[in-house]
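Hi R.,

Here's the chain you asked about this morning:
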Amino acid sequence: MAQRTKLFEKIKNNPNNVTFAQIERLLLREGFSLDRITGSHHVFTRENVTFVIPKHGKQVKSVYVKRVIETLEEETE
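And here is the predicted structure, written out as tokens:
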């Protein structure tokens, strides 16, 4: 199983316990680039998809993780 798939499944199975480093790694592997950082908000973009992920401590709030999961799943269908 590819590293991307393992990471995606790990994040998908437990979206309440995801670190910023994990979500950043997943997005970068999916072809997103870190467009800019404004304060604590990290903006990742790819074509016409943009994610704004705030970094407050190590954990990312599950609402942001779930948005990433939904978008990536829609693209693979």
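One quick note: The longest helix spans residues 62-76.

Cheers,
M.
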